[in-house]
């Protein structure tokens, strides 16, 4: 099987030695997205709702660059530096997803890149 690297200017460029996403067959592996503005590469300012939306917008942009949508997401991982934001994630997710929802894990972490409060990654099942 061949690997296809996915890249879009609609999401932040990689800030390390990784790709925004990699497609292998029908499976798309999305790298973590934090709430960076793709134009300025700075963290979104504002409340946690704005940060969560930006992270989902970034994830969505990479999925679309591969020919998919967030509706193709089968597994979502959410990393939070403050688990008190769990309900905000649920509220914002309802803006991006309808049933059937993806499988999901929410993990509390001590820190994230660039001091972000949230990071998202996931796996999509794409049609050939």
TrEMBL record:
Q: Which SUPFAM superfamilies match?
A: YjgF-like
**What Pfam families does this protein's entry cite?**
Ribonuc_L-PSP
What protein family is recorded?
A: Belongs to the RutC family.
Q: What is this protein called?
A: RidA family protein
Q: Which organism is it from?
A: Thioalkalicoccus limnaeus
């Amino acid at each position: 099987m061949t690997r296809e690297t996915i890249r879009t200017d609609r999401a932040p460029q990689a800030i390390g030695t990784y790709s925004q996403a990699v497609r292998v067959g029908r499976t798309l592996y999305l790298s973590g997205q934090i709430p960076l503005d793709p134009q300025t590469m700075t963290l979104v300012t504002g409340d946690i709702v704005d940060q969560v939306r930006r992270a989902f917008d970034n994830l969505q942009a990479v999925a679309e660059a591969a020919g998919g949508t967030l509706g193709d997401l089968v597994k979502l991982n959410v990393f939070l530096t403050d688990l008190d934001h769990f309900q905000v994630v649920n509220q914002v997710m309802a803006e991006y997803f309808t049933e059937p929802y993806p499988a999901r894990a929410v993990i509390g972490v001590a820190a994230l890149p660039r001091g972000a409060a949230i990071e998202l990654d996931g796996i999509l099942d794409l049609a050939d």
